[in-house]
Structure to design on (241 residues):
């Protein structure tokens, strides 16, 4: 009788252990699916932002990429399009940052890289919540030149945008260091070049010089930054850690 009881108890323990193993396996599967979804969000973020911004730049009356920053597109009757572009892109970047943090093993760039990408996402979200002041004749009917007085919304847009851009630059450099440490020199050079070029363009546009070449260079740097984010997300989805 005692032997039978021991056997039944052992079988029950085995069943419970198997159940726990199945639960853990299910949770691991769900976690992997969540990470993959976040990485796909990162892949989609760049093409979305660039495509929506480019279409508006080419079709909005009075907009001139040589004079106007994309942030000005948040103004006017169709301003909701760029506002939505900021907010949706921000959500996609934040989802990617979480997925990247769960993909990378701890180590050089493994913590700060994803956190800084998340900071870029927060900057985008703030830029969408706070609209830049009309300027340089856009939207049509706005005074030429810079606004005489910066509104609170315009100031916060500038602060959020600057914070986000600095986070993106730092993220590029953090990942560059990690890639160099792991002997992935191609990705290290690509990340470092993206960060340095973006910083140069950002410094140029922040100087207040309204030369058309600087505006075009900064727009190109924005495309470069988004390309890096989407490419990084693609690599993580394809190769994992």
């Amino acid at each position: 009788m005692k032997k039978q009881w021991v056997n039944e108890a052992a079988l029950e323990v085995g069943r419970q252990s198997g159940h726990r193993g199945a639960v853990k396996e299910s949770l691991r599967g769900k976690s992997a699916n969540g990470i993959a979804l976040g990485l796909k969000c990162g892949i989609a973020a760049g093409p979305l932002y660039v495509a929506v911004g480019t279409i508006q730049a080419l079709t909005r009356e009075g907009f001139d990429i040589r004079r106007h920053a994309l942030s000005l597109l948040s103004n006017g009757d169709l301003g909701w399009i760029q506002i939505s572009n900021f907010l949706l892109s921000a959500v996609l970047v934040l989802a990617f940052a979480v997925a990247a943090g769960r993909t990378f093993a701890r180590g050089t760039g493994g913590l700060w890289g994803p956190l800084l990408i998340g900071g870029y996402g927060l900057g985008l979200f703030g830029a969408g919540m706070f609209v830049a002041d009309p300027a340089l004749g856009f939207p049509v009917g706005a005074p030429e030149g810079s606004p005489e007085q910066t509104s609170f919304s315009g100031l916060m847009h500038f602060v959020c945008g600057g914070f986000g851009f600095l986070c993106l630059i730092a993220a590029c450099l953090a990942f560059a260091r990690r890639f160099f440490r792991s002997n992935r020199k191609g990705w290290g050079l690509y990340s470092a070049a993206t960060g340095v070029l973006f910083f140069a363009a950002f410094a140029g546009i922040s100087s207040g010089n309204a030369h058309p070449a600087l505006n075009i260079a900064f727009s190109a740097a924005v495309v470069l930054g988004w390309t890096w984010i989407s490419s990084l997300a693609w690599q993580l989805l394809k190769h994992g850690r």
Q: What stands out?
A: Confidence is low (pLDDT under 50) at residues 19-27. Residues 67 and 76 are 17 Å apart (CA to CA). The two ends are 54 Å apart (CA to CA).
